[in-house]
Design a protein that fits this description.
about 900 residues, alpha+beta, Immunoglobulin-like, Jelly Rolls, extended
Amino acid sequence: GSTGMGKTNLFLEWNFDEEQDTKIYHWNPFGTISTWDVPDSWSGLSNVHVYELTDLGRVEVGTVDIVDGKVTLDVEQNTPYIITQGEVAQDRIDDWGYGSLIKDPGFDAQDWSIWNRESSEGNTDHITFVNETVQRRKGNDVVSIADKQGKITQSIEGLVPGRAYSISAWVKNDGGREVTLTTHIGDTTVTNTMDRASQTRQGEGVKYLDDRFARMEVEFTVPAGVTTADISLEALAGNGTVLVDDFRIWEHPGETNKEGYVFYEDFENVDEGITPFFLAPGRGTSNRTHLAEKDLLGRQKMTWVLDGRFSLKTNQQSGETGQMIITDSTTFKLEPNKTYELGFIYSLANAAPGYSINVKSVSGGTVLNIPLTATGVASGQNTNINSIAETFTTGDKSDYYLSVDKGSGYQELILDNIYVTEIDNTVTNPVIDKVNLSLSVNELEVGGELPSFIMLVNGLMSNGSKADLSNATIEYVIADEAVAKIMDGKLVGVSEGTTTVIANLTVDGKTVSSNFVNIKVGENEVPPVIEVDKSGLQVIVDKVGTLIESDYTTESWANLTSALEAANNVLASTDATQQDVDTAKNTLEEAIKALEKKPVTPPVDVIKTHLEIAVEMATEVTDAELENIVPAVVNEFKAALEEAKNLLASDTSTQEKVDASFERLSEAMQMLEFKKGDKANLIKLLERIEALDSSKYIASTWDKLAIALEASNGVVADENAMEAEIVESYETLLKAFLELRLKPNKDALNDLINKAENLDSAKYTVASFRAVERGLEEANRVFANEDATKEEVGKAEANLRTAISSLQSNAGSSNSGNNASSNNSSNNIVSNSNSNKVVSNSSDSGNSSANGKLPQTGGRSAAAVGVFGTILAVVGAVFSRKKK
């Protein structure tokens, strides 16, 4: 039956202090008329005031007369009210979002005094505030934009010039309308657009658990002299309602430069959660993916961070399989039919869980799959870095996303510096083109120090690929070293103020300068900056970066290098005037015009016939044929074919490159015989072995099996394993399995050792007793050896038993010449005599050598010996009774 919970009509006094005004709380779950006695202290009143309690505050309903000390209330069902003796203030919260530059970020004010709404449809009635009824967010306020076009806007102020910010909002767009988040800052406009429904949100504590809200975000750096911005969110006309919730602005602790990238994340300036990733559908509330942090002061005993201050660490539960984390359409965007490069660094101690990084299409499946092999762990560390860079080409779809997938098992995976760039295959001789400088933190105290790992540098080649900086030299240039400087590999705050830093990166004799990053030292606000336009100079500097030194004479190139150095100094200087900039620009332009080309070598006829034939044959290989080939060979074949086609299409191909391409393609075509192997039997054997209990087997045989087991697991995980490798691995594992040996039972040997150790040497001849000592020594050694075989145990037992049975009594012994195995009760080994009994009650710790017994060196515990002694004592007592 009903418990009555939630069905109680309430009329409760709040204050019981007679010096305070009493309030009465009223709740009616039935919505019926009810009559109540008022408190005695209210007897002088003629009426009371009734207020409804809302999420915005009190709202007066009216007054109710007191009749005969009672009030009759007619109220709404399931609605809270208070009853007061007189009028009370109906104050409203007017500072929603206090402390944030965005006012009323959650639309809790429920009016249009802060946010503005507009529409090209002529009216804005379809743009409304909605109080949600979803159980998890019941009472939460959102903005709803129905089917027509609609936009909400707000102007903000208080931005700090030179600082980096992100602005975000959560949006539900189940109808797939085009929704755009926009921020205008000075002459700069940044946008983020979504045009499809989000995937389902997951995670403990996630406000939108099991719902399809996506987080839209834009990032920007405030230009000099600018402190305001205009933000807006617009939904174009379409089917379905768009819901908007929780705007947020966040000032970055540092600055991450992403110029030249389609997608880049180093996790140094993440403003919420694990953005740009989210837990994948199916993860429920399993929050086991987070950002690992490296202490700026170096106080950690260990760190999971691979580069900079933060890295992404995921360690979802062993039973979780499939997609672990994913990006969304608001954080990862690729275009159809383009070639990209995906790269990242990672650390994975053990590959057993089967991690992979993937590019997928929501509607078209997997485009790129990168299985992650084990990196192991560096000596004295918890990580070991491996770098990955793979190219891929998208299809006709536009709904791509990144996913981190996992099989069964558990192991921490650390990821960092994840990027995607668009590749320009028309560039045949790529050179270093762009350098990006990012700072994890760019504010410090006077006298403060920041470690060098907060400064992150990366470069891009002229074809869009990531530059290899392993042999590069990097020079950091700080514009004003009176404010900050680099000392002993650390960024040091010298005095209060602001300055900038750039990185000059040199690769193969070519130097390219990075972007500027602002540095603030001390607590003073950044002083006003007189804006100097350096954009024209930057364009000319970038143009020089596309030139190739080997094409020009030494003298003219030296002149250009000098002009370029002067230009970069002007770009780096915060004190440069517009005249300084214009002069450097003109000088650099003149140096470019003065460049002299080296004499051109007459063109040489390049023979391509053999490469044309190879390409023709290669293009006849079908995708179906490639399905049975190991992936590494397929990737090499496709890359070699692509390279050959580009060389055939190029007018600048050399004979050397054509011949090399022919050799590469020929080798790749020959390797098409490398078929994938069948791993079914190997997997079955692995499963059988992994079910065994290692403690039951001799350690040396199990250790040999463990080595073969690890190798076989590697073969199973290797998608490029061929039949010969699989067969060899199976045979090696099977041999090791067959050579396993169970540990022998040593109970009988243990009993015999105990028996021998309790013999009294005084009763036997020296020669016969010496044989027992040798047998006992051998038996104890075998007993202590965990790798002893059954044969060794049996031999030791037999030898000791023979030695005992061969004992000869001394001439004067009471044994009368009988050996130790005699059943004659008068000369049994176990005697009740106080002078020579095996089990002594003496507490003298020094009698072990005087009583003539063998030393107890076996593997038995003191407790076991004590129990055995007790048994012997009991047996002796029985023998004694029989004598009587």
